[in-house]
Design goal:
This protein is α+β, with helices and mostly antiparallel strands. It has two domains: about 180 residues, Nucleic acid-binding proteins (OB fold (Dihydrolipoamide Acetyltransferase, E2P)), CATH 2.40.50; about 60 residues, Orthogonal Bundle (Arc Repressor Mutant, subunit A). Helices cover about 30% and strands about 30% of the residues. The strands form four sheets. It has a five-stranded mixed barrel. It has a three-stranded antiparallel beta sheet with strand order 3-4-5. Strand 9 and strand 10 form a beta hairpin. The longest helix is centred in the middle third of the chain and has 27 residues. The protein is globular, with a radius of gyration of 19 Å. The two termini are about 25 Å apart. Its main location: nucleus. This is Replication protein A 32 kDa subunit B-like isoform X1.
């Protein structure tokens, strides 16, 4: 049974993310829509994306529940899959709406990954939202089949929970003037260093290797920046530049706070 055959799923139209514990301060000039780095991988529904406000912010094109949104995760059914030489296009239907998606092939493993994704299959996707001429799409970084159908319900519950959390948080800021301290921002200047054949710096490659270690994959919070820096024997500031580049490319995302990260390929 597909989601579109079950009207009750329309109730699962919430979403967003839960920011870490807020530090309260009276600074009414601080814009609450900027109170969280857009590095977090956010659980959303298609309806939320369709209803999202498209901003002119350089860091993020979308704002949902007062929060900047870039990298997202969705669960739904694959429809109208079309394979091409350089990419695969498909529609993701989660019962709240349909979203056009593209998975570009960076290497042969991407093409092999998409061969086992079929129409009518439930999948979880991670990707970056895009808007062009009023049309919202998803640039998919990773996709995998849903083997346990409890994951579908779990995803929608997450969306509802964080939507309510963020909505109440924004209301509290308006009513009481309480704001969240801005998190440390990571400079976006280009990371210098040796680069591999695919344009990835050697430090970025090593970071991805560390995040792929079983010990970090098993942890919900992933790896702390200090742990990664200690293993690579480099300053944390240099590491943060590499991590920021990986975040912008959708290859890693922050978890419980701005200092813990996981790989999207293994999420």
């Amino acid at each position: 049974m597909s989601f579109t055959q079950f009207d009750g799923t329309a109730a699962f139209s919430g979403g967003g993310f839960m920011p870490p514990q807020a530090t309260q301060t009276a600074d009414p000039s601080f814009n609450t829509s900027k109170n969280r780095d857009v590095q977090t991988l956010l659980p959303l529904t298609v309806k939320q994306i369709k209803d999202a406000f498209v901003s002119a912010n350089e860091k993020s094109e979308f704002v949902i529940d007062g929060v900047d949104v870039n990298n997202v995760t969705l669960v739904g059914m694959v429809r109208d899959k079309v394979g091409r030489i350089t990419d695969v296009a498909f529609i993701l239907d989660d019962g709240t709406g349909r979203l056009n998606c593209n998975k570009w092939f960076d290497e042969a493993i991407d093409a092999n990954e998409m061969e086992r994704i079929l129409d009518g299959m439930y999948v979880r996707v991670h990707g970056r939202l895009k808007s062009f001429q009023g049309k919202k799409t998803l640039n998919v970084f990773s996709i995998r089949p849903v083997n346990d159908y409890n994951e579908i319900a779990s995803h929608f519950i997450e969306c509802i929970y964080v939507h309510v959390y963020n909505s109440r948080l924004q209301k509290a800021h308006v009513d009481v003037g309480v704001t969240t301290q801005p998190h440390m921002t990571i400079p976006t200047n280009q990371f210098s260093g040796q680069y591999s054949f695919d344009g990835q710096s050697s430090t970025e490659v090593k970071v991805l290797e560390i995040l792929s270690q079983p010990s970090y994959l098993a942890r919900e919070e992933g790896a702390h920046l200090d742990d990664i820096a200690r293993q690579l024997k480099i300053p944390v500031n240099d590491l943060m530049l590499a991590v920021d580049n990986l975040v912008q490319e959708g290859k890693v995302y922050s978890t419980v706070d701005d200092f813990h990260f996981k790989s999207t390929a293994n999420a």
